[in-house]
Amino acid sequence: MSESPVAMSTTRERPAWSTSGYLMLVLFLILAALFLWRLTSFAGGEPTDSEVATFLGSIFLLPISLVVIAKGFYMIQPNQAAAITLFASYRGTDRNAGLRWVWPWMGKTRISVRANNVVSEKLKVNDLRGNPIEIATNVVWRVADTAQALFDVDDYKAFVLVQIESAVRSIGSRYPYDDIEHHEVTLRGHHEVINAELRDELNARLSLAGITVDECGLTHLAYAPEIAGAMLRRQQAEAVIAARKKLVEGAVTMVEMALQQLSEKNVVHLDDERRAAMVSNLMVVLCGERETQPIVNTGTLYQ
C-alpha cells in the first residue's frame, strides 16, 4: 500500500520576547565604567588577598558580561521585523522599531514588511476563445506573516514572482479579450472585475507564504503581433455592424412613430402601396450615409 503524503506544517507568527536596547545600553555603560574603575583602583597601594580575589573575579566576570550584552543588541527599522530563533526553533517575531536586545545565543533574521511593487513581464496567453494575447500586470504586495514567509517557503520573493505569472496566465485564459456580440465579461472592457478577481487569485496562491496583495491591475493588454492586424479589422467590422444595428433600430422606431402620428391626426390617408413607398423613403433618408436630396412632387401622389 502506498503511503499518504505528509502534510506540511504551517508556521504562524507570534510575538517574541525582547527588551529595550536602550535600557541594556545603560547597563552596558555602567558595567564598562565599573570595569575601568576596578582596573584603576587596583593599580595603587598594597592590595590584600581578599582585594586580589575580588579583582580577579571582577576582571573575569565583567568582560564576559560586557560581551554578552554587546552581542544581544540589534536594530529594527520602521516597517521591519526580526524573526527570533533558538537553535533553529522559531521563538517569535519582534516588530518593535528601534534598538532592541535579546539573549546573544538567540538568532535574529530581519525581514521587511514594507509594500513591494512588481511589474510582471509581458506574457503570451490564449484567451477564452483561443486568441493569443499579450498581458502584463502590476502587483503591490507585502509580508503579512513573517514566520510563514521565512520558514514555510524557500525564497518568498521568488515564490511571489512565480505565482504572479501563474495567476496572470489563469486569468488571461479565463475571459475573452473582447466581445461585442455576447456582452460577456472581457479583459479589455471590465478592468475592475478582472483586477478584483486577479487580486483574489493572488491572495489565495500567496497565503501559503504569508503574503498579502493590496492592489493589482493590468498594465499591458493587446493581441499578439501575429494576429493583431486581423483582429483589428474584425473589431472594426463588429463596430460597424453594431452601429448599423443601432441605426436601423432607431430608424424603424422613428418611421413607426411618424406613421402612427399621421394616422392618429388624420393628416393624410395612405393605402398600402403609398405607405410602403413612404416607409422606404424614410428608411433611405434615416439610414443613408450621405445627405439626401429632396424631390418635390408637383402632381398627385400617384403621378
From TrEMBL:
InterPro entries the UniProt entry points to: Band_7, Band_7/SPFH_dom_sf
Entry membrane topology: Single-pass membrane protein
Q: Which UniProt keywords apply?
A: Membrane, Transmembrane, Transmembrane helix
Which residues belong to any copy of the Band domain?
A: 71-239
Indicate where this protein is primarily found.
membrane
Q: Give a single Pfam family match.
A: Band_7
Mind telling me which residue stretches traverse the membrane in this protein? 21-40, 52-70
SMART domains reported in the protein's UniProt record: PHB
Say which domain of life the source belongs to.
Bacteria
A Gene Ontology term for the protein's cellular component:
membrane
Q: What is this protein called?
A: SPFH domain-containing protein
Organism per entry:
Novosphingobium olei
What is this organism's lineage?
A: Bacteria, Pseudomonadati, Pseudomonadota, Alphaproteobacteria, Sphingomonadales
